[in-house]
Amino acid sequence: MQTKVRYLSDLKFNLETWRRELRFHFDEMDTFQEKLEEIAAREFGMDARKSLENFQNRIMIEKAAIAKLKHRCKDKMRNLHTVDMDEEIDGRLRTDQSTLREDMRTYIKMHYDLKEEMMDYFTEYLAD
User: Fold this and answer.
1) What is the pLDDT of residue 8?
2) Structural domain boundaries of the chain?
3) Burial level of 43, CB count in 10 A (0-12/13-18/19+)?
4) SS3 of residue 29 by DSSP
């Protein structure tokens, strides 16, 4: 029983951490969108415009992915509050957590790849 309580506490910590990180990334995408709007207001060539539209689309896709992940974390948190204390840890709880963990890893890698590309773009078009 003590092991399960500790495990559930660890799960809750992970979920809270992921939710904070997702909120930060969502806000960060708003900041990047503002920078893209600065570039859009300037007169740059077609290449800059194509990249800008691509980034705007990717921001919308990322925000949708963030919303889905936040919802999954919220559902998982709700499930933790109603968990059956007699249920085995190695069952559904661990499987569900592993799936979400892998999805978070994939999302975070994709987020930082996008961020790096956007930072390179900003360096090119916002440099004075």
Assistant:
1) 74
2) 2-126
3) exposed
4) helix
